[in-house]
Amino acid sequence: MAIETSYSDARVRFASLLDEVVLNQEVVIINRRGKEAVAMIAASELSGLVETVHLLRSPKNGQRLLSALEQVQTTNSNSSSLDKLRRDLGR
């Protein structure tokens, strides 16, 4: 659940709010009087969201990814180590 705070409170607690955002992957909503609220999220979280949007932008690619996910979830495949996969592929 997001932490909601006022602009004034966010200024006072800025460093601790930044720590909360990064350490706990928490979202902080800063409400501003008479203006649109602003959300604070970790840069890594934003990067993941941007990547997801990019991958799902194309309906065809989105369907391919969802089909692959479905296949993995319904198949009882054996896990392989990265080294074994490299050997199998001759790398």
- The pLDDT mean sits at 90
The number of helical segments is 5
Structural class by sheet pairing and helices: alpha+beta
**CATH superfamily grouping of the largest domain:** YefM-like domain
Order of helices and strands: EHHEEHHH
**Biggest sheet record:** 3 strands, mixed
Helix content: 55-70%
Strand tally: 3
Say what the CATH topology of the largest domain is.
Answer: YefM-like fold
Give the CATH class of the largest domain. Alpha Beta
User: Distance between the terminal alpha carbons, to the nearest Å?
Assistant: 45 Å
Shape: elongated
Number of domains: 2
Q: Strand order across the biggest sheet?
A: 1-2-3
Rg over CA atoms, rounded to whole Å, is 21 Å
Reported CATH architecture of the largest domain: 3-Layer(aba) Sandwich
Beta-strand residue percentage: 15-25%
The parts where pLDDT drops under 50 for at least 5 residues are none
Function: Antitoxin component of a type II toxin-antitoxin (TA) system.
InterPro entries: Antitoxin_Phd/YefM (IPR006442), phD/YefM_antitoxin (IPR051405), YefM-like_sf (IPR036165)
Biased composition (Polar residues): 70-82
Family: Belongs to the phD/YefM antitoxin family.
